[in-house]
UniProtKB/TrEMBL annotation:
The chain crosses the membrane at residues 31-51, 71-92, 104-123, 129-150, 157-178, 220-240, 252-273, 279-300, 312-331, 351-376. InterPro entries: HGSNAT_cat. GO terms for molecular function: acyltransferase activity. Keywords: Acyltransferase, Membrane, Transferase, Transmembrane, Transmembrane helix. This is Putative acyltransferase. The keyword Cytoplasm does not apply. Residues 25-171 form the Heparan-alpha-glucosaminide N-acetyltransferase catalytic domain.
Length: 385
């Protein structure tokens, strides 16, 4: 669905007459969502250079193999928290069709995600096993659960649900593995959460990580703390709706710092592991994302114009059509391995450090995606999934 700018503004003005209607989105929200999806594309493209082209890549642009945290591990959780923050700004309570609209959007995200996760399998059934989960599937499940809980529960109860989920998830990961593998949270795949993916999805054949220690980083049980992750975003969104422009920056930064400290303390016993979305991972990444959102909220919200020049304009273009940007990336990701795209890398490999040279095709690829997003924004087109 493509919504034109004037239609969106008209809907927002009409909704503004209802006390339960959402307020227009904050510029800081669109900016951070845009930066997050740009980061997701950057990380995936860099991984393509590393794994497909065998090019040297800065380690921060690659995911931690298991426990630990790199820049690459921050972008998806930042985007997921923005999904939660946007819910109070985009969903109006009291509409008879709200539940149906949430359900239909969730289903669309799941279906598109399944197709994108299995493009090669759809083209050739003999190319390997299909994959059930994926990034858009997780976004869809988190969005659907958080949106419905936002409709049905008070902020206080939402906070209790999020906290209880994170607390209970820790002992759940310590249960004996469902397939008998020794349990050790510090060893890749050796935990109850990963074992459920292996048992559920045919000995791991339909998981992203294959083999007897395989699992899916967007797997079934890991969706539970991801929902808590989204609920933290919902609570922040509710808070931002009730505070004057730029007035929420300090308390939001304080909350972010508190989550960061608590998450780091918890990581002593419950390691920071993106692939099972550990509770410490949720708190640390939500803390860092909250600090970034607080800084952007102070810098750009409530101003007559958005500072930052063309970099801010590019980030806003990505943020306005974030899912469209990610889908476009997924269907064009093979471009990073084209001989034409690799010409700058090969031409500069002996002149520039290898890690710098490998960034050139990545940046050219991202510039092409950015051109498409800027074109959509100039047209006033917003593709709604």
């Amino acid at each position: 669905m493509i919504a034109h700018r004037s239609t969106v503004q008209g809907d927002a003005q009409a909704a503004g007459r209802l006390s339960s209607a959402p307020r227009p989105r904050l510029v800081s929200l669109d900016l951070l969502r845009g930066l997050a999806v740009m980061g997701m594309i950057l990380v995936n493209a860099a991984a393509g250079m590393f794994y497909s082209v065998k090019a040297p890549v800065f380690p921060l642009l690659l995911h931690a193999s298991w426990s630990g945290l790199t820049l690459a591990d921050l972008v998806f959780p930042a985007f997921l928290m923005m999904v939660g923050v946007a819910i109070p700004f985009s969903i109006a309570r009291g509409r008879a069709d709200t539940v149906g609209r949430i359900g239909w959007r969730t289903l669309r995200l799941l279906l598109i995600g399944f197709v994108l996760s299995n493009l090669y399998w759809f083209a050739d059934f003999g190319s390997g096993a299909w994959r059930l989960f994926g990034v858009l599937q997780r976004i869809g499940l988190v969005y659907g659960a958080c949106a419905l809980l936002y409709l049905w529960l008070s902020p206080r109860v939402l906070a209790i649900v999020a906290a209880a989920t994170l607390l209970l998830y820790w002992p759940m990961t310590l249960l004996p593995a469902a397939d008998g593998l020794p349990n050790d949270l510090w060893v890749r795949g050796h935990n109850f959460v990963a074992s459920v993916d292996r048992v559920l999805l045919g000995a791991g054949n339909h998981n992203y990580v294959k083999g007897p220690e395989g699992y899916d980083p967007e797997g079934l049980l890991g969706t539970l703390p991801a929902i808590a992750h989204g609920l933290i975003g919902v609570l922040i969104g509710i808070f931002l709706r009730t505070r004057p422009e730029r007035g929420a920056s300090v308390p939001l930064a304080a909350a972010g710092a508190a989550m960061l400290v608590v998450g780091l303390a918890c990581s002593i016993g419950f390691p920071i592991v993106k692939d099972i979305w550990s509770s410490s991972f949720v708190l640390v990444t939500c803390g860092l994302t909250s600090l970034a959102l607080a800084a952007l909220h102070w810098a750009v919200d409530g101003r007559d114009h958005v500072p930052g020049g063309w970099p801010a304009a590019v980030a806003l273009a990505f943020g306005s059509n974030a899912i469209a940007a990610y889908v476009l990336h997924m269907v064009t990701s093979d471009m990073i391995g084209w001989d034409l795209m690799l010409l700058p890398y090969r031409a500069t490999l002996g002149i520039l450090p290898g890690q710098v040279a490998s960034l050139l095709p990545v940046l050219i690829y991202m510039a092409l995606i950015a051109w498409a997003m800027m074109w959509l924004r100039r047209k006033g087109w917003f593709i709604k999934v």
